[in-house]
Structures are given as structure tokens and as C-alpha cells.
Amino acid sequence: MIQWPKAKITMSTRLEALLHLVQKDENDSFSRYGLAMEYASAGDYAKAVETFNELIRRDPLYHAAYYHLAKTYEAMGNTQEAVRTYETGIFVAKKLNNQHAMSEMTEARDELKNATES
């Protein structure tokens, strides 16, 4: 009978796994993005904002972070910061020539502005 070696680290949640990945490679933008998304989906908006902002600080061209950071600000009721984040994300997407991201963030920003002006 074959005995497989036991894993050195056992992870009970995605959050723990993502934390481990980010600790292992602090410059892994994809893992940091996943960690921020996990915090946001768990409703830990403060940690999500902190993690998205750290991702943007380390990798300012990671355009998806701007969209989801803005959505997190929306969930927190911080409309002004959400609009500002969308606008920064639109600028980044334009710089990257990413029409899809640019249009998605423009639409989200405009919907948010229209909803708050009503």
C-alpha cells in the first residue's frame, strides 16, 4: 500500500489558503486580488479595502482591483470614494487600452452618480 506524505500545512478555508499564498509571495497580484475578493464576499469591507489598496499600491495597472474596490466602497455607502475609484480605474483601463474594463467602470460610475443625484 502506498502512503502519501501528509501535507505540511492544512487549510480549513479559502481565506486561510489565500493568506498563505500572499505571505508566500507578496508580489502575487492574483492571490492578493483573490484575498481582497474573499474579504469583500465575507462582508469584511475594511479588510477588503485595505487589501485592494495594497494590491493597487504594488500593481497599479491591475485594473480589476479598481472596479471591485469601488464596489466595496459602494457596499460601505461611501459613494464619493467609489466614484473616485471608478474614475481612477477608467484612467488605468484607458492607459492599458482595455475598452471592456473602461466601459464597465464608466457604466458603473454613471449608474452610481445617477442614483445619488435622484
Can you describe what's shown?
This protein has one domain (15-117): Alpha Horseshoe (Serine Threonine Protein Phosphatase 5, Tetratricopeptide repeat). Helix content is 75%, strand content 0%. It has 118 residues and is mostly helical. The longest helix is centred in the last third of the chain and has 19 residues, at 99-117.
Task: Show the helix and strand layout.
Elements: H1 14-24, H2 29-41, H3 45-58, H4 63-76, H5 79-95, H6 99-117
The name of the CATH architecture is Alpha Horseshoe
Oligomer: single chain
Number of helices: 6
The named CATH superfamily: Tetratricopeptide repeat domain
Count of DSSP strands: 0
The largest sheet is:
none
First-residue to last-residue Cα separation: 70 Å
Extract low-pLDDT stretches: 7-11
Instruction: Assess the beta-strand content as a share of residues.
Output: under 5%
Proportion of helical residues: over 70%
Query: What Rg is obtained from the alpha carbons, in whole angstroms?
Result: 17 Å
The mean pLDDT is 90
**Which fold does the CATH topology refer to?**
Serine Threonine Protein Phosphatase 5, Tetratricopeptide repeat
Tally of domains: 1
Bulk shape: globular
Instruction: Please report the first level of CATH classification, the CATH class.
Output: Mainly Alpha
Q: Order of helices and strands, N to C?
A: HHHHHH
The secondary-structure class comes to: mainly alpha
